[in-house]
Structure formats: C-alpha cells, structure tokens
Design goal:
The complex is a heterodimer of chains A (about 140) and B (about 140).
Chain A lengths: L1 H19 L4 H8 L4 E2 L2 H21 L20 H17 L3 H8 L3 H25 L6
Helix pairs in contact in A: 5-6
Chain B lengths: L1 E2 L6 H22 L5 H6 L9 H21 L11 H17 L4 H10 L3 H24 L4
Helix pairs in contact in B: 5-6
C-alpha cells in the first residue's frame, strides 16, 4: 500500500512542478535574478507549498502513526552544523548555474531525456559522493 | 529590482505550489516519509533502506509531467540556461551539495519550513543566497546564457 501511496504522491508532485513552471530552468534563473529583470513566480510556489503543508502537518501529527506505516520518519537532527552549511552553499551554486534542483531534473527526464539524462546521472553520482563524504569527514549520521 | 511582468505567473505558480504541498502532506499522512527528492534519491544508495516506496515516488515524479503533456498536447517549457562543462559541473554540485546539506528545495524548502525546522530555514537562506550570487556573477561575467 505504501508503494501505491508513494506513486500517487510522486505523480501529484510532478504535476505540481509542471503547473508551477518549475521545470523551466530559465524561469528559475529569472527568479534568482533579483538584481536584474526579476520574475517573482517561484515565491508563489514556495508560499503555496509551505502554507498548505504547514496547515496540514499539524493535523497529521495529531495522529499516532501514518495510515500505512508504523511510525513517522522525521529528521531528528536539530543542530546547525558544518555539513548543512557547506552542502547548502554548494547546492546553491549548482542550482544558480543550472536552474535545476533534483525534483525538476526528474520531472524533465522523460520529456527531454537527451538534455537531462547525463545531468540526472551526474546528480546521482554527486549524491553518492556526498553521502560518503558526510560519513567520512564529518562522521555524521546519514538519513 | 525590475519585475519581469511578461514571465510572471502568480496563479499557476501558486496553484502548482499548493499541489506540491498536497503531495508532501499525502506522503507524510500515508507513509510517514518526508517528501524530499534528494533524500528519497540518496536512500537508494543505502543498503539498509527500503527501496520500493522510493522508486514508486520517483517514478510518479517522472510520470506527472508526461501526463500533463499527454493531456494538453502542448510542449512544456524547459529552456536551459547553461551548457557544456558549466552545466554538467552544476549537476555534480547539486548532487554533492544536497547530500551534504541533507536536503534540497523540496525537503528543506517545502517540508522543513512547514515544520518550522531551524536547520531547514538556515539551509534555505544559504542556498537561496548562494544561488542569487551565482546568477548575478554569471549574468555579469558573460558565462552561460
């Protein structure tokens, strides 16, 4: 049942990304271009997503467990540590250069595989290297 | 700051954002999992983690846009802003950065902020700031498009 639910969530997420304009790197770049000709659309994506999620999250957390799993798997780390800051800064540079974060890379993959195939493979390679680095250099728990 | 009214899509972006929020809520309500794409992806490389729900979610993310394209029949805009070594170098930075930083735009941006997570707020401010600086540098140095 978890698998069906995750599939539904993924489809809704992919549809949302498409309608929001998130699949278009030039639009993301336009949002990040605050000091030039600025397209504020992405702020509306964030606002809509965070608002609905914040409202619903409180209601869901009143339940003792998810519908089809034994427990909620929420991140337990609370400290602001070096991997968080370093990783987020590195991600920001990559996002700025390409206009692509992981969700839209996947969303674009079947639409424009010739442009996105190698890019997606390199993102996965980076994730693998990043996980190994986090464990070795920072001895951090990987979640 | 000059607003680009020609490409501004407040209603579509708000609607898409709400759908993204609903997808995150649905995943949490049914499976108890955080809808963070980089975390879901990188869990595939971890020996002890269950994989099937991850593959199902990622498969859905691949299919959603294809579904919209099939229904509407109009191509979905996706114009690249860089190419060559910059483009593929950026892919590596996105992967390694989100793994080290434990999240991306969906995990920290949509889910973390909604839980009022301090780590996610710091992450979002950090990657947004770096991305804005990066775009400024690229547009003023002639690199990229």
């Amino acid at each position: 049942m978890q698998i069906i639910m995750a599939l539904i969530s993924g489809v809704v997420f992919g549809v949302g990304l498409t309608i929001a304009g998130m699949l278009d790197p030039s639009k993301i770049s336009g949002f990040l271009n605050i000091f030039g000709l600025w397209d504020p659309s992405l702020a509306f994506v964030m606002a809509g997503g965070v608002a609905i999620n914040a409202a619903g999250h409180r209601l869901i957390m009143k339940q003792s467990a998810p519908l089809f799993a034994l427990r909620f798997s929420l991140p337990s780390l609370t400290s602001i540590d070096r991997p968080l800051l370093l990783g987020s800064a590195i991600f920001g540079i990559g996002w700025g250069v390409s206009g692509l974060c992981p969700g839209p890379v996947l969303g674009n993959l079947l639409l424009i595989p010739e442009k996105m195939g190698l890019f997606a493979a390199i993102v996965c390679g980076g994730l693998w290297v990043g996980r190994a680095l986090k464990q070795r250099l920072f001895q951090s728990r990987v979640d | 700051m000059i607003i680009n009214w020609d490409s501004f899509t407040p209603l579509a972006s708000l609607g898409g954002g709400i759908l993204i929020g609903i997808a995150a809520l649905f995943l949490m309500m049914t499976t108890g999992r955080v809808m963070g794409v980089s975390g879901i992806l990188s869990g595939l490389f971890s020996a002890g983690e269950p994989k099937l729900w991850r593959l199902a979610f990622l498969g859905g993310t691949l299919l959603g846009p294809l579904l919209i394209y099939t229904i509407t029949g109009t191509p979905i805009a996706s114009e690249m802003v860089s190419d060559g070594w910059l483009f593929y170098g950026a892919a590596f930075l996105v992967g390694i950065g989100t793994a080290l930083g434990s999240g991306c735009t969906s995990g920290h941006g949509i889910c973390g902020l909604a839980r009022f997570s301090g780590r996610s707020l710091v992450a979002v401010i950090t990657f947004m700031t770096m991305a804005v600086i990066t775009v400024y540098v690229i547009r003023h140095s002639g690199l990229g498009g």
